[in-house]
Give the backbone structure.
Amino acid sequence: MRIGLLNGGGDCPGLNAVTHGVVGAASQKGWEVYGFKQGYEGLLSPGDYKVLKVEKTEGILKLGGTILGSSNKGNFTSKVGEGGIREIPKQLMEEAIETLNQLAIEALICVGGDGSLSTAQQFFEAGFPVVGVPKTIDNDLGATAMTFGFDSACHSVVDALDRLQTTAESHKRVMVLEVMGRHAGWIALYGGIGGGACSILIPEIPFELEKVAETIRQRDEDGFFHSLVVVAEGAAPVGGTQRYEKTKEDGESRLGGMGDEVAEQLAALTGKETRCTTLGHLQRGGSPTSLDRVLGTRFGVKAVKLIEEKRFGRMVSYQQYHVGSVPIEEAVRELNLVDPEGEVVESAKAVGICFGN
Ligand code: F6P
């Protein structure tokens, strides 16, 4: 048996743990693993790949990034703009499948977020046996309670907030931290709670800055003269819109800039010195946390199992501490967003965190 493996979309900590899991489990069965480089682009004729042996994956578990590379744009992009689906041109699909057939690859493991898994679904519908593995720091994939990479990203947010807190306290300042997550507020929510933010602004809850300013004034009255505010890049004010960076790549605008706007307005509303830090790709880099190493390994092993059981068109999923699987189609149907009435938001509110509503 010879199987293929590729990573699609933005990288995240834990991708190498999945590779380690796939190669470890496959080689115990005597299977060969071909790792395609730069995501689906590696499937273009004649195929850009490396044969992954256990010796070659020794020690990669703890490495950030991916030894195979990844791509979040290019020929096989299947999600464009906000929720738009792009059908991959038939000729391109045929070329990629021909490459796989030429290399005698019998099944393909696609590790990715909603965009890359939508592409995986198109391969499945075109008749090629695929299984998916959920990956994204944003944690926004449906049908799985968690994706690997999310915990590591939250860890970076918490670390940043711990550092910002000490300097904020010295200068009695308000520190705003803008974090990633696209249209989902998971990173802001978990990172903000873990890092002791007094306010967290997320896309799922439109905010009024006067409410945040009120929380900051109250903290001053209580003798806490510094405050940490976490702003998800996709957050927006009541009746307002999300902020996008000016640059556009492949027709895709990138979210960014809401942190600066919030900092400026909070300074005006509270009269306090306010600074903004945009954490950016620090959230995607570095070594995976122990949770992401273990999740990644388990996901990789499960993907091999799904192939062995010939359960194609399915994505590995994590539910209630159990690694199972769901149809890929189900996972990409809609984004997994924070429930504004859910227990996590309620717990945050119970300890005084303001969501600007
Ligand atoms: O989807 C992962 C993510 O890091 C988002 O949180 C962020 O909006 C986007 O990718 C950034 O993409 P790029 O690496 O292309 O700047």
